Each structure stands twice: as structure tokens, then as C-alpha cells.
What we know:
Elements: H1 13-31, H2 44-69
Helix pairs in contact: 1-2
Amino acid sequence: MPEQIQINRRRNWNATREATYQGIGQRDSLKANVTEQGEKLLGGKHIQGKLMSKVVNLLFQELCKVIHVA
């Protein structure tokens, strides 16, 4: 039988808030990428893909912190 890991059920809202602000900042910087003529360099789906990978990386980092503490 696998060993169960006990975790603290209290949510760290500061980490969640920080991740949200990072995501918003990342989105804004991706949207700001334009050519000299003002054309967007990245389309909506491309930006969405990059934001999804950013969220996955942030979640993985938090998961690693939780596992390391336990």
C-alpha cells in the first residue's frame, strides 16, 4: 500500500495571488509584442498556449514545494 502524504489544508493565498499577477504581466507583455507597423507578432491562440505553459510551470513549482515540505 502506498504511503500517504499529509499536507496542510490551508491555502497559501499569497502564492496564488502572486501567480495570478505573474500571469497577467506575462499576458500583457505578450500582447505588447508588435512590429514597427503596429501589427501583432503573436495571435490569440499562440498567446493562450504560452500562458497555459506558464500556469503549468507555476503549478508544478508549487507542487514541488509541497512535496519537499512533506
